[in-house]
Amino acid sequence: MIKLIAVDMDGTFLDSQMNYQRSIFRKIYQYLKRNEIHFVVASGNQYYQLKSFFDDFQDELTYISENGALIIENKQDIFHNEIPYENLDIIIQRLQRNKHIRICLCGMKSAYLLNGDQEFYDCYSKYYYRLEIIESLKEINDTILKIALMVPENETEDILKDLIQDLGHVIQPVSSGHGSIDLIVPGFHKGSAIEFLCQRYHISLDECVAFGDGGNDKEMIEKVKYGFAMDNGSQAIKEVAYRVVPSNNQHGVIQTLLELFDIPEVTEREKALLGMWYDANHDPKVVKDRLNTHHLCYRYNQTDPLELKQRQSILEDIFQAKVENLEIVPPFLCDCGPYIQLGKNIFVNSNAYFMDGAKITIGDNVFIGPSVGLYTAIHPLNYKKRNAGYEKAKPITIGDNVWLGANVVVLPGVTIGSGSVIGAGSVVNKDIPKNVVAFGNPCRVVKEIE
User: Fold this and answer.
1) Which of 8, 10, 182, 356 is catalytic?
2) Which residues have CB under 8 Å from 327's CB, separation 6+?
3) Which ranges in the chain are annotated with CATH 2.160.10.10?
4) What DSSP designation does 1 have?
5) pLDDT in tens, 234-288
6) C-alpha to C-alpha distance for 164 and 293, rounded to whole angstroms
7) What architecture (CATH level 2) is domain 85-184?
8) pTM (2 decimals)?
9) 8 has catalytic annotation
């Protein structure tokens, strides 16, 4: 039985926009809380930054911050270590020999950029909400938990090896992602923090789940019974993981938690938005919403072209949003409506079908020709599952200033870059870059647009 779940944040729980499916996770969290399953945030980042992601329940959680150097439970410090001051001098002297290394000392009260500039401050302020610039260690009156380094991305591995060789006797250098290295007290890491919590909660490591993507997650992933590596994670993490799960941008943590636990509050439509298999044909709410949307599309298609205000009103009912200079030539059909996000100045010619089981994003100044299909839905290859009505869906993104010719088909998961033109009759099954002409089945780039 699972009694503890630990998640890394950057590259794991959070997507590339530093966000997550908040409404769905809230339902998951309530389920975990009811069943006395601990949810633990385990990150190299600052506690004050980490808690900001969890809205009104942030103070109910347990945080392993600074890669295991500080553990906060219900706003209380239950564990911390520190780098001895005499070791700080040795470490800083060695680091300052390389002018490409930027130094952040992470303390209990704040983080401190040693001789930092505005660029360094702007970058680290995303991860350290309490942050100061100092010129000397003498300015610090704080317990230093960890040292975070910003290094050139293409030199990360070489610098890491050199630091292990030169400083391994006083500090443990670990990779925390490309361009980032953490120096932590030897023997203290996310894995040791999980062990500490297991003792505190009287549970075993076999009752723990952990998710991670980088080198600073390795000990945690190895120690628990169910260590999951993100598909976007490093090869080293994947090699020690129990299983590889979908990437952070595919909401892999939330998907996996819904596979592990039966949480009835999470709807079939929410599963669809996560890219999971869902009941698209028998779930009453999914069917009702689709019929309502089809009804609105029917009303729009029967409206006189001269009744501009009424047509505008129906379109806003379909998409549940204000539309600006949108022209759709009937007939038009979509399945959900609100999952279609529209920019400004869009023209859609007749007989378009937007199969929006997942999100469809269309940018500004887009021309869409007759009989274009944007299809997010995927059916199972297994006929028994297919006959049972299951589907999954992947989002489609159309950039600004795109022109899709007549009878273009865009398949699930595709992004078409801004400024590109897709020739008539094309089947787009892979991403198309910006500012190109592409056509064919399958669609291929033919030339760049100057």
Assistant:
1) 8
2) 346, 347, 348
3) 279-448
4) -
5) 999 999 999 999 999 999 999 999 999 999 999 999 999 999 999 999 999 999 9
6) 60
7) 2-Layer Sandwich (3.30)
8) 0.85
9) yes
